[in-house]
Each structure stands twice: as C-alpha cells, then as structure tokens.
Here is the input.
Amino acid sequence: MEIADISAYALSSLIDPPQTRSFHGGVRTLYKRDFVLVVVDTADGERGFAPAGASSSAMREFFEGASQRSFASAVEERVGETLTGAEIYEPADVHDYRSRLDVPDQVAMQALSAIDVALHDIAGKRHGVPVYELLGDHEADPSDIPLYASAGMYMEPSGYARQAQLLEECGFFGYKYRPGIGHVGDRRTVERLREAVGEEMKLMADAHTWWKLRDATYTEAERREVINAYEEGNVYWLEEPVAPDDYDGYKTLAAETSVSLAGGESEPSPDGLRTLAATDAIEFLQGDVRHHGGFTGCYDVATSLPDSDMRFVPHNFGTWLGLVANAHLVAAVDEVDLLEYPVFERDPVLDAPGDSGMYPFDLAFDVIEGTVDVTDGVLSVPDEPGLGVEVNLDIVDQYPFVEGPWTTFEYDD
Here is the structure.
C-alpha cells in the first residue's frame, strides 16, 4: 500500500471544574485528559485509525514545554512528510523508516507505534478480517477477554472500598487502585478492600506515586510495612513500586516479597520491555500498542517472553479505541488473557448502582460510534474487519485541544 497522507489530531476532554486528590506529601490536580487520533490514508482510498499520545518522557525528549499538540504536529509534519509516498507491503515495514525520521528517537517510536496500528486497521479491512487474525501464524481465538477495573486514585480507605464493591458488582476480574496516601493509610486501605470484596476479586496496587513523593518518600521500614500488608491481603500484583529505570530496585524488591511485581508501561520501546523482562524481577509485563511499536512490537514481545511464568498484560489507560486496539493483541496471543479497563465517570456500559469512575473523560467513550461490548466484566472483541469499530470523527470539532498540563503535583514544603 502507498501512504498518501497522515493526519494527527490533538484533542482535550476537560475536567470541569478541575479535581484535586491529596496524597502523602502533596496535592494532585486534574484539569483534562488529552488524546491524539492518528489517521492514515492510502493512495487507494483506504483509511486506518489509531489511538496515540506521547508519554511524558517522550515529550521531554522532544523539547521543553512540549504538549500533545506538539506530538501531533510532529506525527503529521515531520513523520508524515517522510512517509508520504512510501510503499508499505506489510504494516511492520513502516518501522524500517525509524532512522530516517527527523524527530527524537522516543518520539519516532511512539509515532510509528500509532501508524503501525493504523496500517493494521487498513490491512484488516483490505483482507476482510479482524486485526487479531492478521497477527501470528495460528488461528486466533477471539474468545471474550476478562477485564480488570483500573480506578481508585488517592482516597480515604473507605472510598477505595466503596468503589471496589461497585466494580465487583460489575463482574470485573480485579480492582486496581493508586495508593500513596501515607504508609498507615495504604496499609489500612488493603485491609478495608479485603473486608469489602472478600478473597475472590483480585487486587492490584499501582504504586507509581511512591517514587514521586520526593521528600515524603516512605522509609524502608514504612515500605516494608505496606508490602507486608499486601502480602497478608493477597494482593495480585504491585505495579511500578520503583522508578521505571531502577532495574536493581525491582530485583531487590522481588527478592524481599512474595507479592508479584508488574511494570513496563513507562519503557521507551519494545527493547525496553525486553530489558525489564530479562531482570526476572517481574511477573506481569505491561506493554501498550500505543507506545511499544504498535501491534508489531507488542506481539513480538508478548510471544517471546524469557520466562514461561511471566505474563504479558497490556497497559491501557485511555479511550475505548485504545481498549479495542489492545484487545486485538490479547485475542491474537494464546498466552495473553487479561486486559486493563480504565473506569471513568459516567461510563455508559457499566451497570452499577453508583458512579465508580475516577474522573470525567467523555472523549474516551465518544471516540467510537456506539459502545464497546462489555458484560459482567468481560469484553467481546469486535470481529469486523480491521479494528472492527467505526471512529467518530465529530470528536475533532467537539473536543478542541486546550493548552496546559493535564495534571500537576504540588508538594508540601
């Protein structure tokens, strides 16, 4: 296929009024969620779509003060201009152009990740098959995918417990939450969660804030107390408990605790995922088709893990389009059977007697026509050609980009 045009739209879904979350040592404020939609057109009139958006580390590499609009411009102008007119025989071929792109390497990786997804969408439509059938050399099983609910951001222990109960009623496999309210509060939270949902629902703690606490970072003794509580509470995994590039920290912690460790979303590339996996410190590797080489990069990593006990569980913390894209990866790989479902306010497919969302992100739902098929915490993967969903292009006008950070952290003196 010949690439005729690449478009990238930076969009913002406002959190109005802004919401604040108190954590140990400071306050986090949430203003909006940004999203980049990538559209690839071919000379034959075919069109593919992909969810995108640069990670914060990729934007820092781009230039000081960069935003998702900067990233979208880089995709459309610098990357798009290089790829326009290129003959791509297989979606994976687009990665051959990485060294030719006039952008920093991590920006190139994340731009090509999105374009890879869009090219797979086109290829699926061309051949009349869903993306999961394009991947691999076996007949993919598009069976329903269990989901774990991803929510819980800096609340009182009772708030986490109420939210988990609501999501348990929706049938989710597990509940992932963000601790960081102080070592006493973190210990109490897992106790309240187990009291609320019993032993059947899995609990995952996403401790990414632990390494953002600056001067309020837990002492070794305090961290040990929290992890002991996680062991007693049978926490399914502890995610990003150290800075993403602290591989020695992962290995040290893995030797100290029986709680499984998870990580990978912050790695800059598929090679970064492999490096983390090679530490043998984690049991759950979290790649994302938006950031780690698209379907090409993530499929290769997911099917070549060094340890048979290690599981690839895709990271997914954005829109329904990102959910569907990562679901095709899950359906294509026999060894992958779980997916993250971020829970935002006013979710139209969740049947619970209360709102269990973290904050509003209406764009997450409006990006596609209709809804995803989620019943009792299980996702049915679309089986129409390509990604199998119709993208709602009205969002380009409905959600204009708003400059400024999506979130800020203010630390106590």
